[in-house]
Amino acid sequence: MSLLSSASGTTVVRPGAFVVWGDVATPTTLTVADLHAGWTRHRAEVVFDCATAGPQRHVFEGPLLREVAAAAGPAFDPARRKERSRFLVVVNGTDGHHAVLSWAEIDVDFGNAPVLLATRLDGVDLDAAGTQLVVPSDRCGARYVSGVTRVWIGRHEPDGRFPSEA
């Protein structure tokens, strides 16, 4: 994995790259160039209702999140649907946004949502800006994450504790 250590001792991803990690066999760091070279590019023409600027129309291109995430080898048996449905995908970005999706939402046997890790926006490569998470089915752009830095894949494991019923 190609990570850098900061002066504070924490580990950070180099600019323009993001790490795929969590309950996976092969954690990895990827760039826009890696996504261009390694996966089929899909196209999504989207209109989302921005609370501050009104309707926004854009064309995004890039690989499907499920394909990139699957390449990391999530720690589930692909043949067991219920096991897959307990996994979450959390995406963080340089814009301060975070999005949480269920694996079932993007899985072809469940929601089959064509969520992208965009490498192009309106015909312009995102090499400098970084990858963008795009959820084409969303009416608003709240789950769009710019400058993706981390994609965490893992089990949702309720700990069994419930709030007091006082």
Side by side, the strands of the main sheet go 4-3-13-7-8
* Major sheet summary line: 5 strands, mixed
Rg: 17 Å
**Which shape, going by the Cα principal axes?**
globular
Report on the structure:
The longest helix has 7 residues, at 32-38. The strands form four sheets. A five-stranded mixed β-sheet has the order 4-3-13-7-8. It has a four-stranded antiparallel β-sheet with strand order 5-6-10-11. A two-stranded antiparallel ribbon has the order 1-2. A hairpin with a 5-residue loop joins β3 (17-22) and β4 (28-31). It has 166 residues and is mostly beta strands. The protein has four helices and 13 strands. It is globular and about 45 Å long. Residues 1-11 have low confidence and may be disordered. It has helices at residues 32-38, 65-71, 81-84, 103-106, and strands at residues 3-5, 11-13, 17-22, 28-31, 42-50, 54-62, 87-93, 98-102, 116-118, 120-121, 124-125, 132-134, 148-155.
